[in-house]
Amino acid sequence: MREEKLSDVIRGARSVFFEHGLAGARVDQIADAAGVSKATMYAHFPSKTALFTEVVSRECDMLAEELETLLRAQGPTEETLQSFSDALISLVFSNAYIRLYRICVAEAGRFPEIGELFFKAGPERVRLILAGYLMERCQSGDLMIPNPDFAADQFIQLSFTSILNDRLFGVQKRISKSVISGRAKSATSAFLAIYTAKPGMG
């Protein structure tokens, strides 16, 4: 399958899966949305689940790469972490991420490999990317962190845990830019209050 045609299939599948979920999506709907025949789809993806797995993988790659780019900007640590937190909250509150999260959790019982893929390609990958950045900041002398993996998880939880359930359960459908910025600033300040290297440490 040519790359252009493959991209059409992925885009079509994404729109159908996000609207109907994995269980509710039909192959003919996906083929129609992609503008290809079912035979063309099956030539590249042997099943609907395989196609959904590809959609999940690409979505997670896109989100993780966006966050990783922020950490590679080489700015001051506080500014970089606050930008990361701001972007992370915005992504987690996006309709696309919430829809993908809900579908993967719903299907993880029937298809454990989908839940594992989403976790490793999404939340786990982001945590590892952040942990790598924190380790670099420790080596530069900006931070003093005994366990960067644990600290990365702490920072992520500080950023959005208390408001994630509101979004997942539909209690809060939108979050303003000012609230996102405020939470990112608060999370960063709390984190740096613990882990900023002090004179004479190390």
From TrEMBL:
> Can the keyword Transcription regulation be found in this entry's annotation?
yes
Q: Name one Pfam family in it.
A: TetR_C_7
InterPro entries per record: Homeodomain-like_sf, HTH-type_TetR-like_transc_reg, HTH_TetR, TetR_C_Proteobacteria
Top-level taxon: Bacteria
Q: Recite the UniProt keywords alphabetically.
A: DNA-binding, Plasmid, Transcription, Transcription regulation
Return the annotated DNA-binding positions: 26-45
Under the GO molecular function aspect, what terms does this record hold? DNA-binding transcription factor activity; transcription cis-regulatory region binding
Which residues are in the HTH tetR-type domain? 3-63
| Gene3D superfamilies the record matches | Tetracycline Repressor, domain 2
The protein in question is named: DNA-binding transcriptional regulator EnvR
Q: What organism is the protein native to?
A: Pseudosulfitobacter pseudonitzschiae
